[in-house]
Design a protein that fits this description.
The complex is a heterodimer. By secondary structure, chain A is of the alpha+beta class. Chain A is built from 10 helices and 38 strands. In chain A, about 20% of the residues lie in helices and about 30% in strands. In chain A, helix 1 runs antiparallel to helix 2, helix 3 packs across helix 9 and helix 5 (about 345-355) runs parallel beside helix 9 (about 445-465). Chain B has 2 helices and 7 strands, in the order βαββαββββ. Classes of the chains: A alpha+beta, B alpha+beta.
Amino acid sequence: MEIEIQLTDRPIAEKFLSPGQPGAVGAWLEFRGVVRGEENGRTIRALEYEAYPEMAGREIRRLLQEISARHPCRAAKVIHRVGVIPAGETAIYVGVASPHRGEAIALLAEFMDRLKQDVPIWKRGARNAGLRPGANWKTAENVPGRRPALQPLSLDEARAEIRSRSRPLPAVRTPLAEALGRVLRETICAPEDLPPVDRSTRDGYAIRADDASKTFSVVDTIHAADWKPRQLESGEAVRVATGAMLPCGGLRVVMQEHVKRDGDKLHVVRRENSTNVRLRGEEVRQGQPLVSAGTKLNAGALAILATVGNVNPPVSPRLRILHFTTGDEIVTPDQTPKPGQIRDSNSILIRSLLQNFPCDVEQGHLPENFEAAMSEIAAHKPGIESAGVLLVSGGASVGEKDFTRALLEQLGFEIVFSQINLRPGRPLIFGVNGPRVAFGLPGNPLSHFVCFHFAVATALACLTGGEPPKFLRGQLAEKLDDKPCPRETLWPARLEWNDATPRLHPLAWASSGDITCLTAANALVRVPANCASLDDGAKVDFLPMAAMIGGG
Amino acid sequence: MRVLFFAQLKDATGCNAVELAAASPLNTPQLWTELLQRFPALAAHRPNVRLARNWEYAAPDAIFADNDEVALLPPVSGG
């Protein structure tokens, strides 16, 4: 791959020639990041950029090399401008050349995301640039330690943090029989044309497509599994079965119902317009992408991989997940709770929700005493160290949040956030420790349910290298009655499809401990903050669950 | 070793770079101890700072030696 990297304090040129060797490139994709003239309602005249040039160049090169291993690329050109850049001018130019457009688009998207996390370049508003110490350096979306961990994040900010901090785990080659539900990590292309030769779609007689003869001699018979290449002359015909490989290109097949056969002689009675031939490469051309990187492998995708003989594709590893419940008031579901106790419903809830991801789950319970909890955790130490995901269900006690937070910090997790402006699920904790992520889930089952779907499922998708769940647009099927809440709400709902329109029936729930609605819930409707109610027919954003936790 | 500061860390320390004389190679906590002694204002930034050693992000167990170039990188915001 040709890589060209420049850091410059001059304006970036308007036009560049497309790079890459002619012939090897099918897509040339360019991106320009431009300084916006406005942010949050405030006018921006210019931004000032600063770089650590020696390291920025190396990081850009490293990222391109790493990402192009998954999304092939022949050439890349990256130019980042530094110094004061007026609004409307280009701050970064990226051009990538790939064999196919999908690869170029995927490469560019991932590169820009990673650049904003890892490449040592900083910007700030230029009104005071370089003049006043402490002037506001901007921190871009999704960067570590962006704000004090205790400040509540919005739902979107929280999801952005989870997406950027949950890095794809290294791919593993896995036999097809174990690959269901895993995320494919490399685009698989057709190694040859499919079908590899012309095939007959009828029982009949193959003749040259340009042969106008009425009478033919039958010179051979080809059964479904035979491979007998030969050229046909005018007046020659070959008996073929449905699915048989035709002996050469340029043939048509006359159905056996449309001929009279007399020994080796054949009289064509009728000719249809159809050639009755499935042409070589008709289904797929050699080199065409069959299954793209990032696809969650379903039955059909596995069948395609089997068709092309890709029996050990590189996929996401099976996740290892460790889940602890906490709280001294919890008893197992088979016990009768004494006054003040409740049965543990979170363990089975979490275990069941995780069934939709290829993973191994280990579960345990922690006592409320911190020292006792730490020694219990010590017993699970090897599990914690190898687990990709640690989930801690908070107890109902007052100090649960601090308890979980302290626990995660003790285990070496950096707390990314510990509050969200969301109902239910406000005290959700998210932490990272190297490649591992941890969630402290608010104790009640409805909060668990909501937090699992918008937060944990996002992390699991990102760790596996797949697409995180996305909000879709739908319509309320009935009025959603609510009292105004200063936080956003994710409201459990029943999704039904009417004439291709997703229609959402809001389900009744009174408090975050109310779980009766969960039997019917298969979607979460996003209710904006301070919104008293939404009318029947209102357009809403929602997270569908079946698509998210099912087979993809 | 030479230690570089960027973005708001320049504002916090009042300089672009500093020469740190260490009798022996330093691990990450030791490096921070040295830096915080000289620039207490860095303490507030420490949770958000990533360290680089010789133009690459440093692993948590990295050792910083006398002829290394070390950089303190606050959260980046390029593009």
